[in-house]
């Protein structure tokens, strides 16, 4: 493991040492270090400490300055204002730090692993069987995938769970119809495309619905099927499985388009907990956590009331004996805590399901399934809005098919790539178009904090200017092209050289990658990483405008600048990968 101490923590350490030398009674006081644009860093912690020690802040600050070790990392430190410290690090420290990052044999740019990794079970990318995927499913998949990458990068043991909607009374009608029209899904999985699979399911659904609504006898047969399904009657189960398999063909095709790895064994849908449901209910009833109310098994909460002021319960079992969404989620908690040994349960689910999760978590706490040592957290995301600011719908008011959206994004992106392309073949344009288009969709989703709504605006998403993935991808491709032109595979650093302001700013920001990743992972906040990467590309652009690379003053300076380019490119590449976005070598 070759983790590199960041300049921030090196400076922090030196200041903390100086602080405790100057003021021994506050041994582990925090100097409150921040990046600053007056100097490289500013420490604001002395004011409060002086107040506590009844000392003069400027005097205390001067004493701290006298104890600061300078020359290696810190070049200069001075008191400013009422008792702040302005700290400048040396050019040498910046270059040496980046050189250590670049030399990390694990290719992690010196980013350390988390100190206390645990096991996180993350519930994301959970579409519903026999139904089209929509933008809500897109958000869960995109955010969830990025959080998985971030957590795994910090060393967390991550178990993925795709809690697909694959169970419920709606299957009675479908199964009955299929049983009466057995030729309908009579093919091997390999024979149909995702698109065909979905249109098969759609056709079946519509036909079954029509019959269900018009034919009383079919309705009765369909209802009987629900009973057979719940009883696990083998022939009925086999039919149900056909629907699940056909849906998976479709899901996998969408995830592939999204350039996202979803593994079959991680798909544990609602049906995966069927064997636990009765026991879940028994345990809740025996412990008194749930009570019978008008035949249904319910959990009540003091603070959750409907508009009429009456308490709204969580229904674990309906009065007809059927189990619903809550029973499944409670059983899943037992599985994730007791079998998968999770320390953290994470749910990447629409904010509109927040009440459900609030009640489910509270019930599991009362039942003792969620102890003090387990965190359950809904990473709730907001709604995708159309350009008009209303929930995203087609002109006809229908839900937009996710596939159509993705195809349109790829098409728009291909047009952008084609326009800028100089020497790309048609095949390359198609490949880059997909990487740029899917990247644009993911980045738009990940660059605002998850809990906020965002507008799905393809024009903005594929724009070359502004906070878009295309901008970042072009920045990366430009750097790679410079490196190719220079023919420098791994340019060496020259710590002996003085740096310009633009070089320093870029170098300090590259150094902050490790802290950004740690924070984004800890807070499940990919948008912080996105903001960091956007700033990285911007700082690179101003560096490139101000500092000639191939025509620098000396060969050493050229190489050091190429080294900066290379380290920036690798940071961009790694950061984008953590967002699930490709960075093509050429665009
Ligand atoms: N299938 C659900 C939907 O489409 C999301 C499932 C969320 N996960 C869970 N454990 N309830 O809304």
TrEMBL record:
Arginyl tRNA synthetase N-terminal domain span: 9-89
Statement: the UniProt record of this protein carries the keyword DNA-binding: no
Reactions accelerated catalytically: tRNA(Arg) + L-arginine + ATP = L-arginyl-tRNA(Arg) + AMP + diphosphate
GO biological process, one term: arginyl-tRNA aminoacylation
Transmembrane segments: none
Motif stretch ('HIGH' region): 127-137
Superkingdom, natural source: Bacteria
Recorded GO MF terms: arginine-tRNA ligase activity; ATP binding
GO CC terms in record: cytoplasm
Top EC class, one word: ligase
Keywords, comma-separated and alphabetical: Aminoacyl-tRNA synthetase, ATP-binding, Cytoplasm, Ligase, Nucleotide-binding, Protein biosynthesis
HAMAP family per the UniProt record, alphabetical: Arg_tRNA_synth
Subunit structure: Monomer.
Similarity comment text for this entry: Belongs to the class-I aminoacyl-tRNA synthetase family.
Entry protein name: Arginine--tRNA ligase
Native source species: Streptomyces naganishii JCM 4654
């Amino acid at each position: 493991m070759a983790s590199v101490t960041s300049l921030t923590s090196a400076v922090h350490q030196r200041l903390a040492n100086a602080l405790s030398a100057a003021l021994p009674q506050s041994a582990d006081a925090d100097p409150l270090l921040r990046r600053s644009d007056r100097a490289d860093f500013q420490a604001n912690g002395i004011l409060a400490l002086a107040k506590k020690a009844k000392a003069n802040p400027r005097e205390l600050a001067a004493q701290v300055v006298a104890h600061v070790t300078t020359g290696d990392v810190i070049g200069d430190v001075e008191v400013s204002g009422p008792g702040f410290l302005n700290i400048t690090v040396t050019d040498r420290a910046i270059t040496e730090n980046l050189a250590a990052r670049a030399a990390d044999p694990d290719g992690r740019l010196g980013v350390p692993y988390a100190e206390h990794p645990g096991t996180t079970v993350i519930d994301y990318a959970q579409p519903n069987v026999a139904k089209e995927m929509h933008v809500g499913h897109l958000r869960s998949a995109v955010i969830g995938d990025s959080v998985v990458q971030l957590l795994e990068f910090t060393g967390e043991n991550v178990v993925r769970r795709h809690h697909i909607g694959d169970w419920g009374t709606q299957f009675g009608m479908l199964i009955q119809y299929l049983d009466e029209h057995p030729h309908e899904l009579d093919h091997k999985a390999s024979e149909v495309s995702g698109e065909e699979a979905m249109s098969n399911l759609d056709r079946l659904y519509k036909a079954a619905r029509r019959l269900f609504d018009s034919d009383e006898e079919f309705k009765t047969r369909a209802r009987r099927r629900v009973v057979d399904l719940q009883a696990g009657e083998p022939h009925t189960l086999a039919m149900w499985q056909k629907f699940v398999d056909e849906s998976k063909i479709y899901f996998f095709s969408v995830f592939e388009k999204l350039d996202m790895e979803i593994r079959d064994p991680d798909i544990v849908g609602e049906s995966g907990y069927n064997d636990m449901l009765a026991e879940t209910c028994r345990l809740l009833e025996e412990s008194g956590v749930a009570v019978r109310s008008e035949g249904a098994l319910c959990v009540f909460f003091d603070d959750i009331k409907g508009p009429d002021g009456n308490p709204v319960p969580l229904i674990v079992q309906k009065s007809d004996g059927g189990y619903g969404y809550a029973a499944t989620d409670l059983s899943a908690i037992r599985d994730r805590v007791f079998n998968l040994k999770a320390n953290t349960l994470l749910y990447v689910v629409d904010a509109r399901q927040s009440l459900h999760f609030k009640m489910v978590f509270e019930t599991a706490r009362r039942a003792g399934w969620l102890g003090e040592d387990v965190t359950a957290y809904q990473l709730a995301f907001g709604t995708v809005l159309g350009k008009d600011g209303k929930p995203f719908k087609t002109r006809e008011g229908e839900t937009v098919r996710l596939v159509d959206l993705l195809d349109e994004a790829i098409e728009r992106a291909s047009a952008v790539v084609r326009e800028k392309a100089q020497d790309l073949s048609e095949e390359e344009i198609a490949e880059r178009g997909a990487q740029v288009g899917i990247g644009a969709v993911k980045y738009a989703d990940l660059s605002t904090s998850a809990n906020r709504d965002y507008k799905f605006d393809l024009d903005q998403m594929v724009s070359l200017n502004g906070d878009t993935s295309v901008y970042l991808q072009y920045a990366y491709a430009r750097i790679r092209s410079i490196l190719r032109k220079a023919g420098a595979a791994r340019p060496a650093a020259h710590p002996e050289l003085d740096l310009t302001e633009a070089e320093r700013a870029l170098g300090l920001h590259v150094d902050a990658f490790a802290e950004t990743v740690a924070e984004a992972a800890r807070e499940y906040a990919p948008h912080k990483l996105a903001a960091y990467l956007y700033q990285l590309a911007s700082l690179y652009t101003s560096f490139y405008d101000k500092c000639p690379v191939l025509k620098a003053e000396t060969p050493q300076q050229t190489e050091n600048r190429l080294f900066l380019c290379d380290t920036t490119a690798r940071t961009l590449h790694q950061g984008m990968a953590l967002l699930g976005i490709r960075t093509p070598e050429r665009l």
